[in-house]
Amino acid sequence: MTTILALSDTHLNKDGKLHSELKKLAATADLVLHAGDFISQETYDALKKACKGELRAVHGFCDKGLKDSNGIVLKSEEEFSPSTYIEFIGNDVKHNIRIYMVNDPNVVDKEFPEKEVMAKAAANDVDLLVYGVNYQPSIVWGKDGTAKYRMLVCPGNSSPFYHSSHSAVLLDVNDGKISRAKVVRIPITYQVGWRLCTKCKSLFWGPGADKSVCPKGGTHVIDEPNQYCLAHNDPNAFGQAKWRWCKSCQSLFFAPKSEKSICSATNKETHKTFSGSGDYTLILNYPNDDPKAPGEVGWRLCKNCSGLFFAGKGTSSGVCPNAQKGKGAHVSTSDEYRVEVR
Question: Which of 26, 191, 239, 290 is a good FRET partner for 38, with 20 to 30 A between their CA atoms?
């Protein structure tokens, strides 16, 4: 038996921080296939290091110039002929299957025609087609006699960037047939209940709204209906960690800049009452990220109060607790964040 791990759309930038469970899966698979959109060379290198067996990969739309471990630029698609695959597994003809891998099997922004792609795979004698882009995992088995063991596999996204969990697909090959295929989900711990204040445009903890203090006066006012979720106390979460909740004003702020933070509940002093807070991780929105990715963009770090506020969709920049008499706006840093909506 040969075990294949299929991955795609890892979307990790310079840190190349793979989830520990993905590393474990890569360390047990005989062959790892990645259908593109690593985003960074560091991510490819980290995955290669984690693999017990061979890593084969193609590039996606965001991977221009990425190179394999031999310094060769990744191709946009790759076909594994039976002879190539047999060579990998030690000339065992029982496992003679033909694999084709591509990041996007059709045109971006069009509905995925599974029947058409399956028919194309059958016509070209392809047993397994691994593709990316869709972000949701999918396994489609062939149904007719000529495509009995043909399969389409989309591993989904292999980091929590696009959804609240990683996903991958594990396959077993026995006697020239794909005998098993299953989706493996690796969840990230999220906390739901964060809200946008309509008055100051900051993100705050909704269940504590009645105890909150808004820099514009009174308590925060919830902007219905959206609830937001943040990765919470999870060392495998992708993004910028060390955001904290202040139990005095109920707002979120960036702890490494706490000396510059301002709490609206403590007469313009820094946040001092964040004991009991979890460690929150926010997703940075990089310039080359897919604009269709889930999560609301337009969230910014304020350089004057170190809080998170919303400045997207043509809104005002809210009210900063460091401003005089609750009238001054937040002042954004260059970093933009995505916050997932539930």
Answer: 191
